[in-house]
Protein: LLM class F420-dependent oxidoreductase
Amino acid sequence: MKFGISYSTPAFGADPERLTAFARHAEECGFESLSLPEHVALYPGAKIGPMELPPSLPYADPLECLSFAAAVTRRILLGTGVLLLPYHHPVVLAKRLATVDVLSGGRMRLLTVGVGALPREAKAAGVDFATRGRRADEAIDVLRLLWAGGEEGVSFDGEFYAFDDACVFPKPLGVRELPVHVGGSSAAAARRAGRRGDGWFPGGMLPPDERRRQFELVRTSAIEAGRDPEAVQYTRWGSLGMSTKDVDALAAQGVTRIVVTPTTAEPGRAHEEMTAFAERFALA
Structure:
């Protein structure tokens, strides 16, 4: 089992010293990865399910934060949980992600993408909310095409994106393309993970039966697409208070990575929680 940790700027703030201290401590504890969430634009009354999101929540740009954290760490992998892919142009995003990967020494390896759940956020980004799933599918294809393309350039003619002989450099460090994990709590997200994803990272509120159905959908979708279902990693949210028995139960369900987050916004206590978890599971 691999263990990642999430830094939530809405909960913990975007203070640079706090972010870098968190990243350093996570690496010292032995966590595999550091991830950040994203919202591009909120608005009064925005809700995801029953949870209202105050419009002043400081959702800092996750890739900028990860690049900042990479400068003070050496080993910890960098990830998103999730980056809202339809709201980013994939040609620009391909360069941004590859640049972070190069500058971090090949650590931008846990990109998890989602499609968003707030219609007015999509509108603010200039995206038709109804098309966001198809946009995400196409964007994943564009990212991989650009990363793999050489000096001769690559071309694409899709529903949302089109270009001829495009060359995007630098390339990801030492690999043909960066892994793309798929997040979300819908059947559509599960199918996307199976057909296109290197991993699946469902939301934390799914009932157990629905979660099992969606994981099976990931696997059957991979098979239908001619892909190896065993190669699709399975990430789940966990808690810093979870026991070894809890982890064993998730492993039995096929989970390969658990991402946790501190329960407190107080830096000293958050670091204590991280240290205790690392010691319990002998991460370092």
Notes: The domain at 2-178+238-281 is CATH 3.20.20.30 (TIM Barrel). The mean pLDDT is 97. DSSP finds ten helices and 13 strands in the chain.
